[in-house]
Model the fold of this input.
Amino acid sequence: MFRNKEYVLNGWNNKAVMLIHGATSGSALLRPLANYLNCNGYTVYGVNLAGHGTTKEDLAKTEYQDIIDKANKDYENIKSKNYEKVFVAGISLGGLTAAYIASSHPDLDGFVTYAAGLMPIGEVPPGMGEAASDGFVYRTMEGKVGMYKQFHVHYEYIPITFYKKMGVMGRKFIEENLAKKITSPALIVHTQDDSMVYPKSSEYLYENISSKDKELLMMDKGEHLFVLNEYRYEPFEKTLNFFNRL
Done:
């Protein structure tokens, strides 16, 4: 998982962005977005969710509260460096985690979610692996090409229990009505053809947060990981413009 080491790309506009990847992958997943934002002046922190970027055994013992706690600590660490502005953006489980951060940190200057993972499709979402022994599912790294091969670096053996914990994390956010606590500016992005997370996840988030400054971008195509394919240009540009105006 060397390519999933956490990183910092230093910018020059005194504004920072914390990027949060999706489940079972790592910091490399959002590296194209990180490079794009950094080239436009932002200091970018590519962090790892708890249990990620290390071993499948670490992931197996990770609880959803560990994910929330580490992300909050990462945000507070960046905030302590006295940037003019600090933003958070995340995809899938990382998008849900970004919403958790926003719900507990009203000082957050703005956040972006991509395919926020509030409502995953199925206990093991389609494409996330095939049944294997000893409580794991197998998701091969073979056959990847292009940006997916370079940046979508994930565990090949994934504990089934972790998917259940993801589901609990999403349900907890909804049941406790945490969206109402969110007042930070928000850009929420999803695709209609997402086969891993229901698009209504982002619709729910948009409709229920208390932010006065909020936008929902619902694209027709792009699938779940649109940050790594030809559909990434519009959300990347939207993200940059959103941060620039805050």
Observations:
- The chain has a mean pLDDT of 95.
- Residues 64-79 form the longest helix (16 residues).
- The domain at 2-245 is CATH 3.40.50.1820 (Rossmann fold).
- The beta strands are 7-9, 15-20, 43-47, 85-91, 111-114, 130-131, 136-138, 157-159, 186-191, 214-219.
